[in-house]
Amino acid sequence: MRHPDDFPARRSFSSGRAVAIPVEQNRNSSLLWLILATVATLLLMAVPFASVVTFPIRMFVTFIHEGGHALAALLSGFYVIRMTIHWDGSGLTLTSGQNVFVASAGYLGTMLFGVFLLHQAQRRGRTSLLLVGSGILVLLLTILFVNGQASWLMVLPLALAATLLLGACG
Question: I need a surface site. Which of 31, 141, 149, 155 has the fewest CB within 10 A?
């Protein structure tokens, strides 16, 4: 017999009453989306010029990666000299000091931010807020740490992608 907590209450948009959805169904749906995203990623790797489509995503991930280094440096008592993002998707964060925490924070920060986005995106009505919040994060990183015209130009594709996504969600 299943416990009532196995069926989280969700509000139906049409009737306004609570509807119980089994937890297993949520897990299967999440697993299906994960598999579809993996297949789409593998297909995009094989398609010529697909990098044009994935460019804003690659730049966003680089911003989050370099932002992880910057945040770890600040938490470690160092200061950020500059953050540079290149057109090929690479980046560099120059800090006043270095330790293991700062060095590993790029990958860890990207992973934790991705987990946060996936967790929050499962809640209805939060996708627009997550997109706007992510855009504000990139803008803040740019204003605070990015030096050089080429790095500033990286914000333009991200702003365009965010605008298109917000238009599609709204």
Answer: 149
